[in-house]
Design brief:
Strand content of chain B: 15-25%
Structural class of chain B: alpha/beta
Number of strands of chain B: 10
CATH architecture of chain A: Roll
Number of domains of chain B: 1
Strand order of the largest sheet of chain B: 5-4-3-6-7-8-9-10
Structural class of chain A: mainly beta
Number of domains of chain A: 1
Order of helices and strands of chain B: HEEHHHHEHEHEHEHEEHHHEE
CATH architecture of chain B: 3-Layer(aba) Sandwich
Shape of chain A: globular
CATH superfamily of chain B: NAD(P)-binding Rossmann-like Domain
Oligomer: heterodimer
Number of strands of chain A: 5
Number of helices of chain B: 12
Largest sheet of chain B: 8 strands, mixed
CATH class of chain B: Alpha Beta
Distance between the termini of chain A: 38 Å
Helix content of chain A: 10-25%
CATH superfamily of chain A: Beta-grasp domain
């Protein structure tokens, strides 16, 4: 199925969770804020939220440099 | 969170007829030095200005009406907003890639007092992104180097140098008395420490991070908006640093300017930028800047969430 991640289209398997997607992107859940279809997704929901066709995600990765 | 002692402008309106300057108490006062001739020639009693902005502007001297003309013309800004900036005290923690542009734009816009905190000295590898520092400043404390650059820009700017690291032990003492804090450090531990200190003091905080071609920025109004821990509860560990992955100077240039913009909008009362709670994210590789509204998180120690 097709989803949108930070404006770019991406294919993923049905049943893929948000946590799975973070793994695939090489991102650690502790350093990101995720907006799914315009709503911030609670951190506890990452592992139990399956992605759906057409989902639009904004993944903001916090970085430490200054 | 107060803005200093009372209404500093009107409280200090009576003084000997000299040029104007800014005092440690946050008040506009007339001082002995300065371009008094031109002021008195064009602005008798400082109430009538040939440099009109469509309103009577009794609070600013004519020189400032000219200097900050492009600020004052912005809808909702006005001479009143400029007077607020002049009475404001902002602390910039970290005078690196983010802190330099942030301090530069805060000073240029007319913030009256800037605190500058950084324990480091200027190194050669700083110069590709830390735009306040010069080759001639190599080896100097960053606070001194930045102070000299900012004074050259604005001689009336009051600068308070803190050439030390802000720690849990000294944060409250250093931060107290400032109207807003710009967190521009290069470590997550310091970012969270300053978030917690600002939440405890009720001081608005502009915080950001950068890495390679990306970065983020968040403006926090304690008790009203999400804080850094609402976005990410625990100190982030094990992430790469700019010493490992590098950073292109234009990236902190954008994000440092965003920090300054958030703080300036907040101090002046322009919205919704200065209202806080919005997480900005820059993907410099795609030149994509997004903004996400963050709600206060239930259970966050900052207590901004309505339970």
């Amino acid at each position: 199925m097709r989803i949108l991640v930070n404006g770019d289209g991406r294919e993923c398997d049905p049943g893929t969770t948000v946590a799975d997607l973070l793994d695939a992107l090489g991102l650690r859940s502790g350093a990101v804020v995720i907006e799914r279809n315009g709503t911030i997704l609670a951190r506890e929901a990452f592992a139990v939220t399956p992605l759906a066709e057409g989902d639009a995600l904004e993944i903001v990765r916090l970085v430490g440099g200054g | 969170m107060g803005r200093g002692p009372g209404n500093p402008v009107s409280a200090c309106a009576e003084g000997p007829p000299r040029a104007w300057g800014f005092t440690p108490t946050g008040c506009w006062r007339r001082r002995a030095a300065g371009p008094e001739k031109s002021l008195r020639a064009t602005s008798p009693g400082n109430r009538v200005s040939r440099y009109s902005h469509g309103v009577d502007s009794p609070r600013l001297p004519d020189e400032d009406l000219r200097r900050y003309d492009r600020n004052i013309r912005i809808a909702g800004f006005g001479a009143e907003g400029q007077a607020r900036l002049r009475a404001s005290r902002v602390l910039v923690v970290g005078l690196g890639g983010l802190g330099c542009p942030a301090a530069l734009y805060l000073a240029a816009a007319g913030v009256g007092t800037l605190g500058l905190a950084d324990p480091d000295r200027v190194e050669l590898s700083n110069l590709q992104r830390q735009v306040l520092h010069r080759e001639a400043s190599l080896g100097l404390p960053k606070t001194r180097s930045a102070a000299e650059a900012l004074r050259a820009l604005c001689s009336a700017l009051r600068i308070e140098e803190h050439p030390i690291e802000v720690t849990a032990a000294n944060a409250a003492a250093i931060l107290s008395g400032y109207d807003a804090v710009v967190e521009a450090t290069d470590r997550f531990e310091a970012k969270f420490l300053l978030n917690d200190a600002c939440v405890a003091l009720g001081t608005p905080l502009a915080t950001a991070g950068i890495l390679a071609l990306s970065g983020h920025a968040l403006f926090v109004v304690p008790g009203r908006t999400a804080c850094l821990r609402c976005a990410v509860p625990e100190v982030v560990r094990g992430e790469p640093t700019t010493a490992q992955r590098g950073v292109l100077g234009a990236v902190p240039g954008i994000l440092g300017s965003l920090l300054a913009l958030e703080v300036l909008c907040h101090l002046v009362g322009l919205g919704p930028a200065g209202a806080g709670g919005r997480l900005h994210s820059l993907d410099g590789e795609r030149l994509r800047l997004t903004t996400t509204k963050i709600a206060p998180r239930r259970g966050c120690p900052c207590g901004a969430a309505k339970e």
